[in-house]
Specification:
Layout: E1 11-15, E2 21-25, E3 69-73, E4 79-83, H1 89-96, E5 114-120, E6 124-130, E7 157-163, H2 169-183, H3 185-188, E8 191-197, H4 204-210, E9 223-224, H5 233-252
Parallel strand pairs: 4-6, 4-7, 7-8, 8-9
Antiparallel strand pairs: 1-2, 1-3, 5-6
Bound molecules: guanosine-5'-triphosphate and magnesium ion.
């Protein structure tokens, strides 16, 4: 009888010895025969004849394949959140989804990724992965390191959050990008949306001067948001949704 082991979508199965990927379970319902079972033997009663009721002969079975595999689960989300500690990533996911991550005004509050489902209109939704904050030197092990970046390797797009009170958006954006790149050049090349968070701490006049702000290395205008007041959250969700649909179109062609 077949032994069927169910694994979540996003599981990668590797040969434990060589590390070679055997199968990447990237879609629901994907099946794969990992190891061929052995052949059952035949006991001596199968060979009984009227003359010899208890033959000594039996057919031995053949052993099945046997080897060790490693299973790794990567989160599959449409959007991955990228930012320094305290940028407001978890707060953002908590206002756009049902996720209830820990939020606090000190760095490295988030230690494990959180997933949230964001509803768009009545029928659509996308998923967001909130991960720990990145700092300069993370790729050399500073802060929490960057191992958790593997969780956003399989997201369609990245949402960068930079605190609007930061002194230098250009430098922040470059640092975040640099750390991503050191982890995986492919990750750094993903489609990005940049948002400046915590807009509520600025006055309307200050915000007015920021409306045209450009950030080096980022095409387009950053979206200025406040998770606290909801300012521009809906347009940002709409924008993310449009990008996801655009990405889908590209991968289908
Ligand atoms: N004023 C204001 N404060 C905010 C806003 N969003 C988040 N904060 C505050 O910023 C602090 C950090 O928020 P988090 O959401 O925990 O930040 P994070 O980016 O998830 O931080 P790490 O998990 O450490 O990487 C908390 O004190 C939040 O209340 C906002 O829109 N306005
Ligand atoms: Mg957090």
């Amino acid at each position: 009888e077949d032994l069927i082991i169910k694994v979540p979508v996003g599981t990668i199965i590797r040969d434990a010895k060589t590390g070679k990927v055997i199968i990447d379970v990237d879609t629901a319902g994907k099946t794969y025969m990992m190891a061929k079972g052995g052949k059952g033997g035949k006991g001596n009663s199968n060979f009984a004849t009227p003359v010899n009721r208890a033959p000594r002969y039996a057919e031995p079975g053949k052993p099945g394949q046997s080897f060790s595999v490693e299973l790794e689960l990567k989160l599959l989300a449409d959007v991955g959140l990228v930012g320094f500690p305290n940028a407001g990533k978890s707060t953002f996911i908590s206002v756009v989804s049902e996720a209830k991550p820990k939020i606090a005004d000190y760095p490295f509050t988030t230690l494990e990724p959180n997933l949230g489902i964001v509803r768009v209109g009545d029928y659509d939704s996308f998923t967001v992965a909130d991960i720990p904050g990145i700092i300069e030197g993370a790729s050399d092990g500073k802060g929490l390191g960057i191992q958790f970046l593997k969780h956003i390797e399989r997201t369609g797009i990245l949402l960068f959050l930079i605190d609007i009170t930061s002194e230098n958006y250009d430098a922040d954006f470059a640092t975040l990008n640099g750390e991503l790149k050191k982890f995986s050049p492919a990750l750094a090349k993903k489609k990005k949306i940049l948002a400046l968070s915590k807009a509520d701490v600025f006055s309307d006049e200050e915000l007015a001067t920021l409306q045209k702000v450009k950030v080096k290395g980022y095409r387009g205008k950053p979206v200025i948001i406040s998770s606290a007041t909801g300012y521009n959250i809906e347009p940002l969700v709409k924008r993310i949704w449009d990008e996801i649909k655009e990405n889908d179109k590209k991968t289908k062609i």
